[in-house]
Amino acid sequence: MRLDGFGLLVNDMGKMIRFYRDVLGFEIKEAEDAGNVYLVKDGTLFLLYGRKDFEEMTHRRYEYVKGLNGHSEIALYVDTFDEVDAAFRDAVENGAVSVLPPETEPWGQRTCYIADPEGNLIEIGSWNKPYEEKDK
User: Fold this and answer.
1) Do 50 and 35 touch, CB atoms closer than 8 A?
2) How many Å apart are CA 83 and CA 79, to the nearest integer?
């Protein structure tokens, strides 16, 4: 098997599309009124599923966390420490919830956390080198 993408179950499709598209720069692949919406970021498929639509499709009901949740995180990388600070500032100014302002961790990574409108955690981090070199 290959990882094709990942997704979130959402309540307010329009709000979530606008956040990921307009605030974080994800590319949308469908109309905003679709029940399931495909977005792409740097070649990775990112799916937004309407919670009600998913429940109807699977014939099940699910429990959902309200507010900030620690079930998972989405990690985004930028090449420099200055870009971490700028991305955090821009995201918060455009509606993201501040969870952890940028700080340089003891292991050398500069990181911060924001949350999307439905409380999903998003990390923005850097090792102060280009993405292609970060794991070397």
Assistant:
1) yes
2) 7
Q: Please name the residue that has the structure tokens 């290959």.
A: 2
Long-range CB pairs of 49-56 (<8 Å, 24+ gap) are 49/7, 49/8, 49/9, 49/10, 50/9, 50/10, 50/13, 51/9, 51/10, 51/11, 54/9
Q: What is the pLDDT of residues 61-119, one digit of tens each?
A: 999 888 898 888 999 999 999 999 999 999 999 999 999 999 999 999 999 999 999 99
State which fold the 73-133 domain adopts.
2,3-Dihydroxybiphenyl 1,2-Dioxygenase; domain 1 (3.10.180)
5-58 is a CATH 3.10.180.10 domain: yes
Per CATH, 5-58 and 73-133 having the same topology is answered: yes
Are 48 and 17 in contact, with CB atoms under 8 Å apart?
yes
Domain boundaries, the chain: 5-58, 73-133
Report the alpha-carbon angle 84-87-91, nearest 5: 140
